[in-house]
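Sequence, please.
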């Protein structure tokens, strides 16, 4: 017994010893073990398991340089560009002198024409490797496109010469070749540009970007057969992206007004051996868009009757078409029948997502969300369910969860432009503009430069005043869809902002050449903007007068002409013109509204109110009339009547954003900040995309409430403002950062806001308080004294006493212990 007990005891001791030894392994050692395992798996070609091992490293050691570098490189090499970009950013944040990280970030930024980011990273990389020819090529590309933006011909020519020298030294340098191609395109030397592109493709035949440019040149020279041949070649060359190129080919045929040929091609794709369900769905989608819903429904019925396709799939299409055509109950009923007691598989789950979309459109968000959650519980990667849930997570500010979901979905579908666009929206909500821009750029590429994605990215670039890059994106898209009015109008907007009037004229001519009333309206608006920008008011007036009798544009022209005459000839002439218009159209509500505005401006408030009251009596939904009446009461000092008008308007329009905004302002002025916050919360729940609502809600939460929950809520709502250059937004984000104790981060934002709003005493006080928190005594004292001088003694702000106290405290001489 003793021997046996001794053996058991020895076993326990040995076991404990082993456990004790394992416990002594540090997290760094375990991280290193996972790192070595990841490297071994990469050597074996098991990339997916290697990536998992890398993530295990970061859970134990988030600053492992080798693991982060190799992980980012692996993602980059396997086409996961957004994730690679994010990982390289983390790498250089931790290790600023990591050459691979800085080089990769410069390469990715240059590939998406994000020249400001490329400039930053290539400068850091060249400081580490000044003779690296690839980096020199990127640096030269930045110099070239900056010179083009600034219209500096000498600098532009110098970059072209350098690009030619770099290509001579290393013909594989893509950025150098792109400069030569871009220069040829700008000079419209189309055939020379084709030769340059073909040279590049001979070196690397998988450069999708060059194929896109080549298609555009073929469009310019009118080689339509060449375009079609190249698109068909690309379908075979890049089989994983066959669907995207197929859609591009169909768009091309449609733009050439070859609808029959397009339909024949789509039908052949749907009927070919190995055709996917998506091919058959694409046929129905084409018919719906180009032949109408009834034609699509007829095709679906034919397929079902003939047994040519999967019955359930086509029944779901029938349900969706019926729903869209107004047979809502029938559409939902058929979809519910398809999903009830059905086998749990991918097809059933896809039907449930379609049903969820229907329920969302019927304002049944609870039922829709329940269906989506059910699908994701069974298949967390179901792409359409992921997109739906990501949308509502972003709306609810749960961006981290949304990004994690979308990143996983993108790993499964690396060319899904919708997922990339959603990730861009999530990054925007988080205030990460660099990753937002990166995702928008990648979405353009993944979509084959489709109009929607191109417009979204170009708009973002234009908002950032990166007009040259916006122009490039729109031109690339127009090469594939040269008659798309939305793309043309956006390009015209860019040119008017550049004040490039000759190119504006080219866009106007292209819009007028389309047989489309909406395109003609956009051409007229661009013409008006051009004449306004050139101070050609007489010609603008002549243009508008010429449109007065136009069936489509007449009313808009009259309204614009009225505003023009008010600005150029004064109120008397404008009112005379308005009276003439009213004599012809006495019941026109817009003209009557303008008449009320003229009366109010002239001080004839009783007559103005009579006009406004008559309009809302006829239609209480005229929100702008209610607002005009409310503001008129405010301007004459009758605040009680103004508030009464507002309450009356909200009975008619209880969810109108403008009216609610005004009501929140009334509560703020009355000091009832909790009521104002309640309104902003409701508005935010209705539309969390509004920057102004987000700003006001976050500002009130941070100013009025001091509990941790409210401050965290304020920060979450305001994150998207962190890179804004709007002074009010800078003040909000800076003050919230200050309230949360992050004074260093707050300083940059509050300084910028104080410069942008020098007359706002609250903004100046916020800067003073933050300076004091940073113990920047002299500057804080001067700023508080500035604030004190600005305070209205008859109506002092709540912080007036604090200002006096801080001045007294900061004025005390420093004491030493």
């Amino acid at each position: 017994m003793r021997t046996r007990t001794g053996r058991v005891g020895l076993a326990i001791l040995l076991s404990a010893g082993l456990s004790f030894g394992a416990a002594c392994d540090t997290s760094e050692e375990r991280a290193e073990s996972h790192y070595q395992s990841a490297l071994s798996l990469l050597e074996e070609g098991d990339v997916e398991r290697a990536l998992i091992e890398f993530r295990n490293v970061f859970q134990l050691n988030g600053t492992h340089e080798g693991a982060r570098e190799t992980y980012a490189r692996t993602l980059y090499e396997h086409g996961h560009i957004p994730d690679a970009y994010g990982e390289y950013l983390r790498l250089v944040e931790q290790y600023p002198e990591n050459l691979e990280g800085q080089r990769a970030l410069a390469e990715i930024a240059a590939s998406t024409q994000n020249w400001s980011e490329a400039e930053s990273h290539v400068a850091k990389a060249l400081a580490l490797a000044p003779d690296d020819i690839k980096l020199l090529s990127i640096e030269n590309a930045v110099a070239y496109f900056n010179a083009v933006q600034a219209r500096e011909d000498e600098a532009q020519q110098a970059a072209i010469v350098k690009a030619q020298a770099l290509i001579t030294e290393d013909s594989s340098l893509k950025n150098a070749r792109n400069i030569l191609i871009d220069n040829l395109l700008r000079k419209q030397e189309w055939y020379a540009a084709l030769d340059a592109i073909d040279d590049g493709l001979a070196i690397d035949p998988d450069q999708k970007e060059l194929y896109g440019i080549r298609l555009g040149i073929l469009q310019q020279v009118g080689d339509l057969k060449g375009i079609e041949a190249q698109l068909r070649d690309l379908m075979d060359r890049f089989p994983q992206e066959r669907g995207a190129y197929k859609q591009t080919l169909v768009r091309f045929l449609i733009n050439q007004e070859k609808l029959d040929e397009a339909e024949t091609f789509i039908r052949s794709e749907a009927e070919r051996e190995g055709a996917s369900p998506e091919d058959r769905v694409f046929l129905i989608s084409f018919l719906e868009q180009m032949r109408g819903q009834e034609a699509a429904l007829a095709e679906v019925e034919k397929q079902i009757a003939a047994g040519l396709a999967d019955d359930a799939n086509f029944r779901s299409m029938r349900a969706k078409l019926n729903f869209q055509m107004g047979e809502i109950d029938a559409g939902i009923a058929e979809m519910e029948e398809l999903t009830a007691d059905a086998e749990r598989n991918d097809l059933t789950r896809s039907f449930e997502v379609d049903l969820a979309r229907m329920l969302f459109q019927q304002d049944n968000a609870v039922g829709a969300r329940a269906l989506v959650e059910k699908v994701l519980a069974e298949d967390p990667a179901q792409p359409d369910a992921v997109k739906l849930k990501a949308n509502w997570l972003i709306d609810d500010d749960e961006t981290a969860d949304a990004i994690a979901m979308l990143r996983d979905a993108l790993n499964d579908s690396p060319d899904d432009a919708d997922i990339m666009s959603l990730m861009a929206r999530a990054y925007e909500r988080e205030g990460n503009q660099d990753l937002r821009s990166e995702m928008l750029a990648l979405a353009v590429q993944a979509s084959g430069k489709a109009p929607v994605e191109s417009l979204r990215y170009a708009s973002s670039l234009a908002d950032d005043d990166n007009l040259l890059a916006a122009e490039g994106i729109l031109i690339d898209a127009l090469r594939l869809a040269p008659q798309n009015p939305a793309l043309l109008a956006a390009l015209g907007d860019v040119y008017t902002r550049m004040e490039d009037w000759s190119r504006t004229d080219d866009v106007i001519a292209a819009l007028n050449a389309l047989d489309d009333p909406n395109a003609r309206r956009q051409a007229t608006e661009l013409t008006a903007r051009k004449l306004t920008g050139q101070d050609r008011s007489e010609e603008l007036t002549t243009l508008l007068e010429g449109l007065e009798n136009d069936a489509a544009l007449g009313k808009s022209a009259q309204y614009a002409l009225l505003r023009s005459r008010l600005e150029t000839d004064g109120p008397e002439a404008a009112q005379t013109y308005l009276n003439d218009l009213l004599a012809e159209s006495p019941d026109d509500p817009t003209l009557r509204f303008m008449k009320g505005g003229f009366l109010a401006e002239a001080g004839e408030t009783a007559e103005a109110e009579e006009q406004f009251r008559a309009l809302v009596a006829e239609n209480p939904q005229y929100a702008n009339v209610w607002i005009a009446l409310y503001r008129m009461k405010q301007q004459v000092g009758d605040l009680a009547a103004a508030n009464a008008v507002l309450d009356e308007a909200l009975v008619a329009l209880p969810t109108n954003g403008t009216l609610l905004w005004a009501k929140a302002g009334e509560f703020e002025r009355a000091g009832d900040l909790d009521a104002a916050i309640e309104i902003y919360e409701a508005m935010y729940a209705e539309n969390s995309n509004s920057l102004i609502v987000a700003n006001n809600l976050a500002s009130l939460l941070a100013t009025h409430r001091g509990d941790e929950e409210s401050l965290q809520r304020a920060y979450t709502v305001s994150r998207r403002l962190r890179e804004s250059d709007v002074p009010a937004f800078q003040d909000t984000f800076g003050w919230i950062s200050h309230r949360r104790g992050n004074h260093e981060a707050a300083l940059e934002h509050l300084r910028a806001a104080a410069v942008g709003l020098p007359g706002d005493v609250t903004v100046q006080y916020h800067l003073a308080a933050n300076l004091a928190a940073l113990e920047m005594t002299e500057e804080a004292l001067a700023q508080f004294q500035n604030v004190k001088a600005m305070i209205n003694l008859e109506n002092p702000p709540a912080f007036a006493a604090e200002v006096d106290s801080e001045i007294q405290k900061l004025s005390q001489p420093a004491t030493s212990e």
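The first helix runs from residue 2 to 23.
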